[in-house]
Amino acid sequence: MSSVGTRVFVARLAGTIVFDPLGDQVGRVRDVVVLVRPKGAPRAVGLVVEVAGRRRVFLPLTRVTSIDGGQVISTGLVNMRRFEQRAFETLAVGELLDRTVELVDGSGAATIEDVGIELQRSGDWLVTKLFVRRRTGGKGGLLRRRGETLLVGVDEVAGLGRAAEQQGADLLLAQYEDLRPADLADVLHDLGTRRRLEVATALDNERLADVLEELPEDDQVAILQGLELTRAADVLEAMQPDDAADLLGELPDEQAAELLELMEPEDADDVRRLLAYEDNTAGGLMTTEPVILGPETSIASALAHVRRQDLTPALASMVFVARPPLETPTGRFIGVVHLQRMLREPPHESIGTIVDTDIEALPADAPLLSVTRRLATYNLLALPVVDAERRLLGVVSVDDVLDHLLPEDWREVDEGDEVAAEPTGTRRA
């Protein structure tokens, strides 16, 4: 059991494993929910815990029996309903870290780097300490070393209850640097609109592009519209062309055209071609950047190409063989070479000797149902799309098809029923 006076810092708590009383793992702590009050110390009321299926749920601190030794012990009762932040709640990791506050002794501003919560005799967990980094000179003109860190009481700062005009996100992102894009997208989705944009802005272009591809459309549009135009164009260039086209298709025509003009011509041309097709056709579903090689390419070289980190497993499953030019639209499409076949053949052989020419390519106007049937019938992960001259236009992969077959809000729907759940009712204990 946690004893009175136990102090825990939330940045260190993030990622901690949560166990039930029998020692079974429930999930991992991702954040702490805090109520910042006009008077008195802020009160921590619960943990945001990530459970199986990447779902984030609320665990009241009244259901926590111990926070000690790098683990959290719960009573075993966890409501599996997805956590939804309320307007009066603040996420300690997501919203307090990097926030700028004023030191009440008049010595200037400081940035919060960690938040300490402490167990009281009443059983409440209160925010009692803040670990901050000074941002200005010292009091009364006495200059202090810039970047000095201090552990201060929560009553020694002002401005904790309001967001700064612009809040950094370095510390928050440090907590989640190892998350996959889909998991980081879940974190962003759970943040408030303003904080979501602040965090998204702090990501580099490649990382933000990967995360945008995993977010619901409304979040994608809000983030892209919140970026400076040149930055938005750079992020679109870093996205897969089909995903960039889908996102631009959600924007007003005038704004989409402006962004296309700011993109590199080669990237913009790929996206424009995709925008010309209907959404639920092979042309609207395809990507223009599969692995395309000439028939003279060695198997060893082809295997090196499919090792590209930016390739999805579906696109890495085969190489598409065509005559020059090898950029879409290519020269005449010849066929495909399967990854498994390449692994069984001598690496010095050319891929032209093992081309599978039996796979029937799709026309760009093939409807979604036809694409789905073809993938299922032949147990394929990707299919070529060609024009009337049999030039390769792009490739439809199974993940693109799934995105269009699932409900539009599938990224926001929980993945199962409640397990060991409390009765439906208010979330607060």
Give a quick set of tags describing it.
single chain, 429 residues, alpha+beta, SH3 type barrels, MgtE N-terminal fold, CBS-domain, 3 domains, 13-stranded mixed β-sheet, 30% helix, elongated, disordered C terminus, CBS domain, CBS domain-containing protein, MgtE_N_sf, Mg_transptr_MgtE_intracell_dom
Question: What's the layout of helices and strands?
Answer:
Elements: E1 7-9, H1 10-13, E2 17-19, E3 25-35, E4 43-50, E5 56-60, E6 64-68, E7 71-74, E8 90-91, H2 92-96, E9 100-103, E10 108-119, E11 125-134, E12 149-153, E13 157-158, H3 170-175, H4 181-190, H5 193-202, H6 205-212, H7 217-226, H8 229-238, H9 241-248, H10 253-262, H11 265-275, H12 282-285, E14 292-293, H13 299-305, E15 318-322, E16 333-338, H14 339-344, E17 362-363, H15 368-377, E18 382-386, E19 392-397, H16 398-405
Parallel strand pairs: 2-7, 14-15, 17-18
Antiparallel strand pairs: 1-10, 2-3, 3-4, 3-8, 4-5, 4-11, 6-7, 9-10, 9-13, 10-11, 11-12, 15-16, 18-19
Helix pairs in contact: 4-6, 6-8, 8-10, 9-11
